[in-house]
Amino acid sequence: MANKRVCPHTVTIYNYLGEDASGNAQYSPTVLSFVHLHLSRGVSANGTPSDSTRFHFFDDVSTASKSFMPYDEWQKLPIEEKKQSWTLNAQGLDFLYAGACQDEALPQGENLFRITRTVRFEMGRKCLWHWKVEAE
């Protein structure tokens, strides 16, 4: 069973909103608390970094600074309304930052990962329902 003892981490999701008038990407940050985070740092045989991460957001334990909305509904909203909620998708436009960050500008560094996969688990007892998010 998931609880705050096994979900001590905080991450920030950066949802891609589109480009502004000057062509710069815009993002909306959402801080997620009480998640289970696993970071994997490594280097491939040819010397390039191969860092990856995954986290689990449990319905009954984890919290978010905004309300969640399914991606199909969220993408239809105007930009200002998108900033009021958050979503998950694996199209490669959204980012995960390991830690809390409220800046609208995308942070740089080794704790920033591009979201590559999201899976929803709704089986078993409701206390186990969660999102699994993978990023590179």
Number of strands: 9
Run of helices and strands: EEEEEHHEEEE
Mean pLDDT: 89
Lateral strand order in the biggest sheet = 1-2-3-9-8-7
Shape: globular
Proportion of residues in helical segments: under 10%
Specify the number of helices.
Answer: 2
Please state the structural category: mainly beta
Question: What does this 3D model show about the protein?
Answer:
The protein is built from 2 helices and 9 strands. The strands form 2 sheets. It has a 6-stranded antiparallel β-barrel with strand order 1-2-3-9-8-7. It has helices at residues 71-74, 79-82; strands at 9-19, 25-40, 52-58, 63-64, 67-68, 85-86, 95-98, 112-121, 130-135. It is 6% helix and 44% strand. The chain has 136 residues and is mainly beta.
Give the tags.
2 helices, 136 residues, mainly beta, two-stranded parallel ribbon, six-stranded antiparallel barrel
Any chance you could write out the topology, listing elements then pairs?
Blueprint: E1 9-19, E2 25-40, E3 52-58, E4 63-64, E5 67-68, H1 71-74, H2 79-82, E6 85-86, E7 95-98, E8 112-121, E9 130-135
Parallel strand pairs: 5-6
Antiparallel strand pairs: 1-2, 1-7, 2-3, 2-4, 3-9, 7-8, 8-9
Outline of the structure:
This protein is mostly beta strands and about 140 residues long.
